[in-house]
Amino acid sequence: MDDLRIADLGDTAFSVEFGEAVDRTASAKVMGLRHAIDDAHRAGNVTGLVELVPTFRSLLVSYDPLVTRRRTIQAEVMAVAAACSDAPVTAARSWRLPVCYDDDLGPDIDAVCRAAGLSRAEMIAVHTGTDYFVYMLGFMPGFAYMGDIPEPLRLPRRSTPRVKVPAGSVAVAGSLGAVYPWDSPGGWHLLGRTPVTFFDPARTPPSLLAPGDSVRFHAVERADYEAACRDPGRLAPEHLLAEGG
User: Fold this and answer.
1) Does one domain contain both 55 and 146?
2) How many CB atoms lie within 10 A of CB 108?
């Protein structure tokens, strides 16, 4: 890894950055370094580590200044980076998540269809026909930034954000897709809604998705969506993993 740079993030953290592009090559480097540092920390070769947070093209390293010095842990991280592979060492999970595309659950679907020049059936086929890559979590707990949205669905953010987007809303903006895990403001285009819970503090880990995972949506009828809402047990993580995921 000879293309990285270090950026300061206060007195207890720094980031290791890989170029300027947001793509899977940069993500592989980020995830590869994350796994390598985890391994080195378990082996006692990186001391004082508090947390590693992967982003689109960088890895945040948080450390305890009462245990280690910045120069020490930075040197340890750089030594790991010099020796590690660009590819993650653990297999990513593949998820298959249900979505209902009814008008009241996806209020922007008609506008997206017009902008894309697609019928509703074609738009749903495009959206459900792609495997989306989870680049990072951010914005709020459980919010996964997923790429890469097919070209017909790549639209700029809404000119006027909504004050409240319902939890479970499946959305697109630019080259990215996401699911809102909580009721919150938001400016992305809403295509439908999933009954899946994306963040549960009682679950280990609490976030359903993680960087490096892949997601494929599949369309469900309203009756199936409402039945799943009434019976969250059928949407336990182990039931949402695709075969081999």
Assistant:
1) no
2) 20
The position carrying tokens 């019976």 is: 231
Q: List the domain range (segments joined by +) for residue 24.
A: 5-82
39 and 151 within one domain: no
Look at the chain and report how many structural domains it folds into. 2
What whole-number distance in Å separates Cα of residue 214 and Cα of residue 68?
36
Mean residue pLDDT across the chain: 93
> For residue 183, which of 167, 172, 198 has the smallest C-alpha distance?
167
Length of the chain as a residue count: 245
Q: Among 56, 82, 108, give the residue marking a domain's end.
A: 82
The radius of gyration computed from the CA coordinates of the chain, to the nearest angstrom, equals 20
Sequence-distant (≥ 6) Cβ neighbours of residue 5 within 8 angstroms: 16, 17
Q: pLDDT tens-digit profile of 96-136?
A: 999 999 999 999 999 999 999 999 999 999 999 999 999 99
The string of pLDDT tens digits covering residues 56-85 is 999 999 999 999 999 999 999 999 999 886
- Calpha distance 133→26 (Å, rounded): 13
Q: How confident is the model over 219-232, as pLDDT tens digits?
A: 999 999 999 999 88
Same domain, 204 and 136: yes
Domain boundary among 61, 82, 103: 82
How big is the CA angle at 153 (ends 152 and 154), to the nearest 5 degrees? 95
**Residue 152 and residue 16: Cα distance in Å, rounded?**
34
Tokens coding 43: 């082996």
Q: Which of these, 127, 159, 167, lies nearest to 143 by C-alpha position?
A: 167
Q: What is the CATH number of the domain that holds 11?
A: 3.30.1360.40
The verdict on residue 87 lying in a domain is no
